[in-house]
Specification:
Elements lengths: L1 H19 L17 H18 L10 H9 L4 H42 L5 H9 L6 H15 L1
Helix pairs in contact: 1-3, 4-6
């Protein structure tokens, strides 16, 4: 309990110092982002949407009275409240992990299907020639096959 209180005190002190003193460091230089697949973008957007639904209040408020805020956090909270908050956070984390695991399993299954489909594809057939043209802008034929099969599954 006292460790949490110490962390909260430290966090609030740092927060107050950020608003009282101007920052002495220049803003960090942004690094170029590495290219990612559409599936990764979709996964990240889903996580961001879930996070924003869970963590953002309906109407954000800013409390600029830091002394009041500090007093509020320094007051001891009852043990049941802290335990309940911890259980809720653990439950949300467990759900997010399960969803991420399911998505990974689906991605692995789709990859296996795409590999099998590519092995069976006759490159001299109409479908094979069409696929060659389709896959031209993808980083690999496997990535193109995965997107193609995903689109076919969504149509069904």
């Amino acid at each position: 309990m006292s460790e949490q209180q110490g962390e909260l005190d430290s966090f609030l002190t740092n927060l107050q110092n950020q608003f009282v003193r101007p920052p002495t460091q220049s803003p960090p230089v942004s690094q170029p982002k590495p290219p990612v697949s559409a599936a990764t973008d979709d996964f990240l957007q889903e996580l961001q949407a879930q996070f924003s639904q869970v963590s953002q209040p309906k109407e954000p408020t800013v409390d600029l009275d830091f002394d009041h805020l500090l007093e509020k956090w320094q007051k001891p909270k009852s043990e049941p409240d802290l335990a309940q908050q911890l259980q809720e956070k653990e439950k949300l984390l467990r759900i997010e992990r399960e969803q991420a695991w399911r998505r990974q399993q689906q991605e692995k299954a789709l990859k296996r299907q795409a590999e099998m489909w590519l092995k069976q594809l006759d490159p001299d057939s109409d479908e094979g020639l069409w696929f060659e043209e389709f896959a031209y802008h993808y980083p690999s034929k496997l990535a193109a096959a995965m997107d193609y099969l995903k689109a076919l599954c969504q149509e069904s």
